[in-house]
Amino acid sequence: QVQLVETGGGLVQAGGSLRLSCAASGRTFNPYGMGWIRQAPGKEREFVAVISWIRGKTNYADSVKGRFTISRDNAKNTVYLQMNSLQPEDTAVYYCAADTSHYSLNIWQYDYWGQGTQVTVSS
Q1: Which residue in 116, 77, 66 sits closest to 94, CA to CA?
Q2: Side-chain-facing half-sphere of 23: CA atoms under 13 Å
Q3: How remote is the C-alpha of 27 from its chain's centroid?
Q4: Whole-number Å distance between alpha carbons of 41 and 43
Q5: 46: β partners
Q6: d(CA 41, CA 58)
Q7: Which residues pair with residue 112 across a beta bridge?
């Protein structure tokens, strides 16, 4: 079993930055891909970013390209999401997720999910 714990959410003004962290634990943690997914109030969950655990290949949703950066520290079993130039439309609960067999932009292929961390951007 894999446990994912997100930290780093909070309230920030538009134009500001936040860095989310996702620490993974479990007897064997060897994902294929790690992703960030968000869910805004009244909306469905949407893909934000993904990183392949071994090679570090990344992909982003168009809405965050150039503003968000996903990275990982394999030694710490931790994935990060650096969010810059935040806008009110980025307000959402941000989830970290692990995919044990895919590097995927399809959020429904992820096997393990964290509990989420709230990010609120004020205008």
Answers
A1: 116
A2: 5
A3: 22
A4: 6
A5: 38
A6: 26
A7: 98
DSSP state of 20: E
The predicted pLDDT at position 62 comes to: 97
Instruction: Give the residue among 82, 64, 62 at the shortest CA–CA distance from 72.
Output: 82
| The pLDDT value given to residue 1 | 82
pLDDT given for residue 103 in this prediction: 86
The residue among 60, 7, 65, 54 whose CA lies nearest residue 29 is 54
Return the exposure string of 27-49: e unless at least 16 CB atoms fall within 10 Å of the residue's CB, then b. eebebbbbbbbbeeeeeebebbb
Question: Each residue's pLDDT tens digit in the chain (123 positions)?
Answer: 889 999 999 999 999 999 999 999 987 778 889 999 999 999 999 999 999 999 999 999 999 999 999 999 999 999 999 999 999 999 999 999 999 988 889 998 999 999 999 999 999
Residues β-bridged to residue 70:
81
